[in-house]
Specification:
The complex is a heterodimer of chains A (about 450) and B (about 1150).
Chain A lengths: L1 H11 L3 H6 L12 H8 L6 E2 L2 H5 L3 E3 L2 H6 L2 H7 L13 H19 L10 H26 L12 E4 L12 E3 H18 L14 H14 L3 H14 L23 E3 L2 E2 L13 E3 L1 H5 L7 H5 E3 L6 E3 L13 E2 H14 L3 H13 L15 H15 L6 H10 L6 E5 L2 E5 L12 H7 L7
Parallel strand pairs in A: 1-6
Antiparallel strand pairs in A: 2-7, 3-4, 5-10, 8-9, 11-12
Helix pairs in contact in A: 3-7, 3-8, 7-8, 8-9, 9-10, 10-11, 10-14, 11-14, 14-15, 14-16, 15-16
Chain B lengths: L3 H14 L8 E9 L1 H12 L2 E3 L2 H4 L5 E9 H9 L4 E6 L2 E6 L15 E8 L10 E4 L5 E3 L5 E6 L4 E6 L2 E7 L5 E5 L11 E3 L4 E3 L7 E4 L1 H4 L18 E3 L12 E3 L12 E4 L2 E2 L12 E7 L2 H4 L10 E6 L9 E11 L12 H13 L4 H4 L9 H10 L5 H12 L3 H9 L3 E13 L3 E13 L6 E15 L4 E16 L2 H4 L25 H6 L12 H7 L2 E19 L2 E20 L4 H9 L1 E4 L2 E4 L5 E25 L3 E26 L14 E3 L7 E3 L5 E20 L3 E12 L4 H5 L4 E9 L14 E13 L9 E4 L11 E5 L8 E13 L5 E19 L11 E20 L5 E18 L8 H4 L14 E5 L13 E3 L2 E3 L2 H5 L7 E6 L4 E11 L2 E11 L2 E3 L5 H5 L33 H8 L5 E3 L2 E12 L2 H6 L4 E16 L18 E9 L1
Parallel strand pairs in B: 2-5, 6-12, 18-21
Antiparallel strand pairs in B: 1-3, 4-5, 6-9, 7-8, 7-10, 10-11, 13-14, 15-20, 16-17, 18-19, 20-21, 22-23, 22-55, 23-24, 24-25, 25-26, 26-27, 27-28, 28-31, 29-30, 31-32, 32-35, 33-34, 35-36, 36-37, 37-38, 38-41, 39-40, 41-42, 42-43, 43-44, 44-49, 45-48, 46-47, 49-50, 50-53, 51-52, 53-54, 54-55
The chains are: A mainly alpha (about 450), B mainly beta (about 1150).
Chain lengths: ~450, ~1150
């Protein structure tokens, strides 16, 4: 019988596959062109990162108990590192948003190979495909910072990572890969991305990735894995491609000092836009006093990063490198300088490390007030660099990863909150450094929960 | 396109060549040197006997001269063939001719060579019996008749043939040298099981089946009078229910077979016309062209249609000619006159009450906001009078006099007078059919002209149908070709009624019959003054609108059928079928500048500035065109095999593959400033925003209604079906089908998981040990199991995206993924297990069947929450829901002794339930369930259920309705109606009948036939309407006479459930009352559907009129309810809307 069908189809001039692949309705808009794929990647929500790390970190405290009480379960519990973060709350953007981004990337990767590559579209084609790989790697990496343990060579193969969805379908079950497999997937995606992406930063579309962005991300990832040699190499490679810094003396002290197209931003992303606590000008979100006090009066960052609320007389955050109230969690040259500086120092190259630090700070202090930093030993240099890292990269979604990795090295950072007279602490090595997976994901996806 | 001309020409020739038949015994012939053909025609005409012969043989014959007067036929025949190389044999009414040896020399008896014998096997209804087995007595030779009842074999000319078939009496036929044998088999015991049914792929012998087929034969089909073929099935088809009171948006079906087994997918049964699924409007089929309808109910019957069969299948077979059939001409005509609709059926507040309510509201004052409304909402004529009176423009006496006058007006009087009339439907159909040994044909033409009871609505249809079948290559090859064409025109004036406001005291015409304006749209004083004279007249006169309506829809449909069938071997043939179908629905709605719609739009978009005024929408008409067209290509290759061994084993099997492609398009365009005579229009600016009347601050673009859409469905299917019978009593059947489609996901197309069925049947009464022959001569048990499929077009196997409006942060466009690729998207599956018993008591006095079935809907399309890790956050629509149903179908045929006065009774009784057994999404508020406008399945209940809110009576202080909230009486209506506790929802029962059936009685006396059909529906609920104060005040409802029964003083709560009048209204309070349990009524009712009186001319009478036969009938339809459970005067089939008026039809059928 099949032969009859073949014969008929042959006469009709089409193959069985074509016949069955026909689009059933003109109302269905199936992504098939480069424009479609670019549209998917250009959605604003494709560049959001989880907030739970920053919510759980020590850059801020909440002013009012009533305000805390009014927060949603997630933000309220993350603040005090409660074991049950969600108390039944579903639709958690920290999990859902990265996976939406991964879906977008997977749809692009699934379909783009069907687009004929010509001389005319080759560059666009590779930029889109590379961007999709980058988006996926970035999302996997960001998820792993919140929902998987910090990378440790000794246990990575057995530690539970995150589900690695590589196809846009919904049929395959979600399975948690190991931490090792998670990072391997990230590196494999970034290798693809690097080979495809343009060397130039897309100046008008900072939501799209480029070769420098890949290098910067790799530097960030290796630093978090405490593979400082690699981190240093990638930071260096990035700065070879692009190393501009903004001279803060040229920046006006206004509520939005920086634009999203600022010179340092290699790649734009922001902490979940739905986050209500950590935002520019959020009155109840007060900057950690020690952190705020650590800025010198001549340090322009003190004015450009913070604003003193008239009523409370306490520091709040200003709008960030996103050019909006949302916190910047993307990649920027300042971070890369600090990463390279740290890696130099850790490698014993004090001077090189301090050179990078000084280059950065030169652009941060009021002209003529800055005295280059010096250090007697690599260890001393490292201490200074790490302190500056915390100051410079405030509210960038990086502190959580830094605490996790530094506590692995005996820095013994203890997080403390005082709320309504009660003191909460998070000690190094606590299981709560890995956030629980939202309950709806556990129920619907059937994946194992993190121990708390 | 195939040319009609040669076919028509053939038909005309056929007409001329073949004689016309009457009944007579004596023959008078007077021919000189005439051809035998001419003489045969003469004899056929006089006697009603038919000649069977090979036309080639006549060439051998010479001319005949015969002169006889009133001699017996035999004698006349002898005369004719004297000296001819032809001899004749008379069997029944057939005169079969054969060649005598070589020109008259008889060869010696002993050396008779085996000869080729051909024949056709038909049943008592004249239908070919497919698959009957023909044995040569005393030898092992046997053949099976083909699907068309034809067979051929070689046998000695003196052999005896034995013809057997399940449920027919075995018949022995001596060949006596005949080369052509036509055998009429007698049914074996019961009428129920001998019908020949078609499943659209093959014709099957009803008695030898395991599945559930319901055949509606031609006579029963013609009992009812209607232009729509499906109407003819209502009330006469077991297990088939016509659903009334359907609401748009709830995916309800107009017809359901054995209940419901899908949620969001297509709920309608598959309709098959001849070989292929029917697409297009069912109204394109002329019932006069239909021979029979078979409804396939269980898996064994329907699953051959695979992914299309989940709701059952209705196979419609058109009339065809037959081989060796003299030409027959039949003319039918009917005239149906229907009454005006009963406008008083819908309960509304009387004009006096309405005005008294308005008086109360006016005093509150309720209308102050309305008077100051910048939107200039319309205020009723009565209230305008009150305003004038208040403002001192008219005196109290004048105002009261005017209001009194209004309260005596009832809009329905004018509506009845000007908007409704008696409906008049005329139907005419002429058909002609006939056939020779190697060719048969059918030709028909039909014309329907229906004037609806709404003035301005009419329907005209012309249908043409022709088919020709040729037997070629020694009848090994059968070639058929046919065209069915239909063109219909519908004119519609319903738009004239759409804007009619709700006041019950509208005057549509003045004393002189001239159209009067009614208040609608905006407040009348505003209309009169707005735009400072620059606007067009803004009045709305319904009578003018009726006259101006120009909305015409044309349906065109044609389908070309080609068929090729070749007999490869005995019992094995291969067939190829092709159908091309194209059709369209073309609606053209021209609303001239005089229509309110157009004037209103032009006025709203008129731009008045100090400098002058301009019109954004130009003067002239508005012309909307909507073209819905489709093109379908079907091609099928099939192999048929049927064989029998040693009278004990019979096998019928088919296997085939088909390819189906449907392309559909929808194109809607609007032209503004249209000039109908010149066919010109004026371009408008769709992009700019305009300030519009009556709220000049709002900026709105000119409405753009243009749509261009297309769909394409592709199917590849493989199927096979086999029935094996052993010893005529044990029957095993099996079928399997695999569908691939562009609507399914990749995995479904790749994995070969077919839909299948299997069945067993046992004719107990044929067993040797069976001892009940004397009182129960027929008993058959059968059981089947299998899967049917269903398709949901709204879900996609592909990832789809939605373009986001506007631009992203970087100023470029972006898109959101809105539908996941679902590679495992597949058809819905309905598993049906069916067990049945067929029986016939002695003399067929009582016969019938009883069946029980269980229906499980699996993989039904439903919503379910999705693991967010997939990246999809919305509920996912996929194969996630399940349903379960079961039911019983009982059919009883009862008949009296065969005397001059006869009585037949047919009882149909069906029970069917359904339940959603798995549904993944729960709604937050109970409003999603009790509100019948939304469609949310609730696990554990029937898909369509009536839910209600608990009623705690009326408050004895203020007459407020009391609800139930958190364990106590409450008037917190907002919380009650939006409760999130599913426990607050009361399940009243199914919304569709669970028990239904009919009793048809036929009395027959001499030439008269009287029949009437009583139908019933039980076991369901509906919600009646009552007073909704807030809607009444806002003019959104005409009120309800329950108003008179409202709570007015303490103590009334003991006698009434109608809440007190509250001013201002509280819509939450109204919602609570509307959906409370006191307004739920039982739907049970019994109806006398119709009565038919028929008269058939005696043969002698017919002869006098020079026709072969004639029938006259009178048919009364929609007669009325005999009983209903509710005491509110509501016909449960018409909870909304007005019952179909009674109609009376007269008709005639004449056969020539």
């Amino acid at each position: 019988m099949k032969k009859i069908v073949w014969a008929i189809l042959l006469v009709a001039g089409c193959g069985r596959k074509d016949f069955l692949d026909a689009k059933p309705s003109s109302d269905l808009f199936i992504p098939t062109t480069l424009e479609d794929f670019q549209n998917i990647l250009d959605r604003d929500a494709m560049n959001e990162t989880p907030a739970l790390g920053e919510l759980s970190s020590d850059n801020y405290y909440l002013l009012m108990y009533q305000f805390w009480q009014g927060l949603n379960n997630k933000e309220r519990n993350a603040y005090i590192w409660a074991a049950d973060t969600y108390q039944g709350q579903g639709s958690i953007g920290d999990w859902n948003m990265p996976y939406q981004e991964i879906l977008g990337a997977n749809v692009v990767l699934d379909g783009i190979d069907k687009v004929q590559v010509t001389d005319a579209n080759r560059l666009q084609w590779s930029a889109i495909k590379g961007d999709a790989y980058f988006v996926r790697a970035y999302a996997f990496y960001n998820l792993a910072q919140i929902f998987a343990p910090v990378y440790d060579d000794a246990t990575a193969a057995s530690d539970m990572g995150i589900p690695l969805r590589l196809k846009p379908g919904i049929d395959e079950p979600s399975v948690r890969a190991s931490v090792k497999a998670t990072y391997e997937q990230v590196f494999s995606d970034l290798a693809q991305a690097y080979s495809l992406l343009p060397a130039d930063i897309p100046w008008n579309n900072r939501n799209r990735a480029s070769k420098p962005a890949v290098m910067a991300l790799l530097a960030r990832i290796y630093l978090g894995m405490r593979k400082y040699e690699e981190a240093g190499v990638y930071a260096d490679s990035c700065l070879h491609l692009y190393n501009a810094l903004i001279d803060y003396n040229t920046v006006a002290v206004v509520s939005t000092p920086f634009l999203r197209s600022n010179a340092e931003a290699l790649y734009q992303s922001r902490i979940l836009s739905t986050t209500s606590v950590i935002k520019g000008s959020a009155i109840n979100c007060v900057i950690d006093s020690g952190l705020f006090r650590s800025f010198d009066a001549n340090d322009l960052r003190k004015q450009l990063f913070f604003t003193i609320n008239q009523n409370t007389n306490l520091p709040n955050a200003r709008n960030s490198y996103t050019g909006l109230t949302f916190c910047f969690s993307g990649l920027a040259t300042d971070e890369v300088y600090l990463t390279r500086a740290e890696c130099y120092a850790r490698a014993g190259n004090t001077q090189a490390g301090l050179n990078d630090l000084n280059t950065l700070l030169q652009n941060r202090w009021k002209t003529g007030t800055f005295t280059p930093v010096t250090a007697a030993s690599p260890a001393q240099a490292l201490g200074i660099i790490l302190a500056e890292r915390r100051k410079e990269l405030f509210f960038r979604g990086l502190r959580w990863t830094d605490i996790r990795r530094l506590n692995k090295e005996g820095y013994n950072i203890v997080l403390t909150r005082v709320l309504n007279g009660q003191t909460y602490q998070l000690l190094p090595g606590d299981l709560r450094y890995v956030l629980p997976i939202p309950p709806d994901v556990i129920t619907l996806g059937g994946i194992p929960q993190n121990p708390r | 396109m195939l040319s009609l001309k040669p076919i028509a020409a053939l038909l005309v020739i056929a007409c001329l060549l073949t004689g016309i038949d009457t009944y007579a015994q004596q023959v008078t012939l007077s021919h000189k040197n005439a051809s035998l053909k001419t003489v045969f025609d003469d004899i056929e005409k006089q006697t009603g006997y038919y000649f069977f012969y090979d036309r080639a043989m006549l060439r051998l014959a010479g001319k005949v001269t015969v002169q006889v007067k009133d001699v017996p036929l035999k004698e006349a025949l002898d005369q004719c063939f004297k000296g001819q190389p032809i001899e004749w044999v008379l069997v029944g009414k057939n005169i079969t001719l054969r060649q005598t040896g070589a020109f008259g020399r008889e060869p010696p008896e002993s050396v008779i060579p085996p000869m080729l014998v051909k024949g056709m096997i038909i049943n008592e209804s004249g239908e070919p019996v497919p698959g009957a087995t023909v044995f040569i007595k005393g030898t092992g030779t046997q053949v099976a008749a083909g699907e068309n009842g034809l067979f051929s074999l070689t046998a000695d000319s003196n052999a005896h043939l034995l013809i057997t078939s399940v449920n027919y009496e075995t018949q022995e036929v001596p060949l006596s040298g005949r080369a052509q044998v036509n055998v009429r088999l007698k049914k074996w015991v019961t009428e129920l099981n001998h019908a020949v049914v078609s499943n659209g792929y093959q014709r099957l012998n009803g008695g030898g089946l395991t599945g559930t087929f319901v055949k509606i034969d031609n006579e029963l089909l013609n009992r009812r009078v209607s232009s729509n073929i499906l109407d003819h099935l209502d009330g006469i088809t077991s297990g088939l229910l016509f659903n009334k009171n359907n609401t748009t948006g709830l995916n309800q079906s107009s017809i359901s077979i054995r209940g419901r087994s899908t949620i969001y997918a297509n709920p309608e049964p598959l309709i098959v016309l001849d070989n292929f699924p029917y697409t297009g409007d069912i109204n394109n089929i002329n019932p006069a062209d239909i021979e029979s309808i078979t409804v396939l109910k269980d898996a064994a019957a329907a699953s051959i249609w695979g992914a299309l069969s989940g709701n059952g299948v209705i196979v419609i077979i058109t009339k065809k000619g037959r081989y060796n059939q003299p030409v027959r001409v039949s003319f039918t005509s009917s005239l149906t006159v229907g009454g005006k609709p009963d406008l008083y059926y819908t309960p509304v507040l009387s004009s006096a009450d309405y005005i008294s309510v308005e008086r109360i509201l006016f005093k509150k004052p309720y209308y102050t906001d309305w008077e100051n409304d910048p939107g200039h909402r319309v205020i009723s004529p009565a209230v305008e009078i009150m305003i004038k009176n208040r403002d001192g423009k008219i005196s109290d006496a004048d105002a009261n006099a005017q209001l009194d006058a209004l309260s005596r007006v009832d809009t329905r009087n004018d509506l009845e007078k000007y908007f409704y009339r008696n409906s008049v439907n005329q139907q005419y159909a002429l058909n002609l059919s006939g056939g020779y040994t190697n060719h048969h044909y059918y030709f028909s033409a039909g014309y329907d002209k229906n004037l609806s009871n709404a003035v301005g609505n009419a329907y005209n249809r012309v249908t043409l149908n022709t088919s020709n079948t040729y037997a070629l290559l020694k009848q090994k090859l059968e070639l058929s070709a046919g065209i069915i064409f239909s063109a219909a025109k519908t004119t519609n004036s319903s738009s004239a009624r759409q804007l009619m406001p709700n006041y019950p005291y509208l005057q549509l015409a003045g004393a002189d019959g001239g159209p009067l304006p009614v208040y609608t749209g905006f407040r009348q004083p505003y209309k009169d003054t707005a735009g400072g004279g620059n606007l067009l007249n803004w009045n709305y006169k319904p009578l003018d609108e009726l006259r101006l309506a120009d909305d015409v829809t044309r349906l065109t449909d044609y389908r070309i059928n080609l068929g090729l069938k070749y007999s490869i071997l005995k019992g094995l043939d291969a067939a190829l079928y092709y159908q091309y179908n194209k059709g369209s629905t073309d609606e053209r709605n021209y609303r001239s500048q005089n229509t309110y719609f157009t004037r209103d739009l032009i006025n709203q978009y008129t731009q008045v500035t100090p400098a002058g005024f301009s019109r954004a929408i130009p003067l002239g008409g508005i012309f909307d065109k909507s073209l819905n067209d489709y093109e379908v290509n079907n091609i099928r290759g099939q192999v048929n095999y049927s064989h029998a061994w040693k009278e004990e084993h019979e096998l019928t099997a088919i296997a085939g593959a088909e390819l189906r492609r449907l392309d559909g398009g929808l194109n809607i365009t609007r032209q503004y400033g249209y000039d109908k005579d010149r066919r010109t229009s004026i371009k408008v600016d769709y992009l700019s925003s305009y300030s519009i009347y009556p709220a000049p601050s709002t900026n709105i673009k000119i409405p753009m209604v243009d749509v261009d859409r297309s769909t394409t469905d592709h199917y590849i299917s493989y199927y096979s079906n086999a029935v094996y019978t052993w010893r005529h009593r044990y029957i095993v059947s099996a079928s399997a089908r695999r569908d691939e489609s562009n609507l399914f996901g990749v995995n479904t197309n790749q994995k070969g998981v077919p839909l299948w069925s299997a069945g067993l049947a046992w004719i107990v009464s044929k067993e040797d040990f069976y001892r009940c022959d004397d009182w129960l001569p027929y008993l058959k048990l059968r059981v089947t199991d299998g899967y049917n499929g269903n398709v949901d077009r709204t879900v996609s196997a592909y990832t789809t995206i939605l373009l986001n409006g506007g631009v992203n942060q970087y100023g470029v466009s972006s898109a959101t993924i809105n539908n996941p690729a679902n590679p495992s998207l597949r058809w819905e599956k309905t598993n049906m297990v069916n067990a049945g018993i067929d029986f016939a008591f002695r003399h067929d006095r009582v016969s019938g069947s009883l069946e029980y079935y269980i229906k499980k809907g699996r993989d039904l399309i439903g919503f379910s929450p999705l693991d967010p890790t997939t990246g999809f956050l919305n509920n996912f629509k996929g194969n996630t829901a399940d349903m379960l149903g079961n039911g019983l179908d009982l059919l009883l045929n009862i008949k009296s002794n065969e005397k001059s006065f006869r009585w037949y009774g047919t009882v149909l009784m069906s029970y069917t339930t359904d339940k959603v057994t798995s549904y993944k999404v729960k709604q937050a508020s109970i409003a999603s369930y009790y509100n019948p406008g939304s469609f949310n399945p609730l696990q554990g209940n029937p898909l369509y259920s009536v839910y209600a809110l608990k009623w705690m009576g009326l408050d004895n202080q203020d007459g407020d309705p009391l609800g139930f909230l958190k364990g106590q009486k409450s008037t917190d209506y907002n919380s009650i109606v939006n409760s999130t506790d599913l426990g607050d929802l009361i399940y009243k029962g199914p919304a569709n009948p669970t028990v239904f059936g009919s009793l048809r009685n036929t009395f027959s006396w001499k030439q008269l036939d009287l029949s009437f059909n009583i139908t019933w529906k039980f076991g369901y609920y509906f919600r009646r309407t009552s007073i909704a104060y807030d809607d009444l005040y806002k003019g959104a409802s005409p009120g309800h006479p329950d108003f008179d029964r409202r709570w007015q003083k303490a103590g009334d709560e003991k006698t009434t459930n109608v809440p007190s009048m509250n001013v201002p209204g509280d819509f939450q309070r109204d919602i609570f009352y509307r959906y409370s349990e006191v307004l739920v009524e039982k739907g049970d009712h019994i109806r006398l559907q119709d009565i038919r009186l028929g008269y058939e001319l005696k043969k002698e009478q017919a002869k006098k009129l020079h026709v072969r036969g004639a029938q006259l009938y009178v048919y009364a339809n929609n007669i009325g309810l005999l009983w209903k459970a509710n005491d509110k005067g509501i016909d449960p089939d018409y909870v909304t809307g007005i019952p179909n008026p009674r109609s009376l039809a007269m008709g005639v059928t004449i056969e020539f």
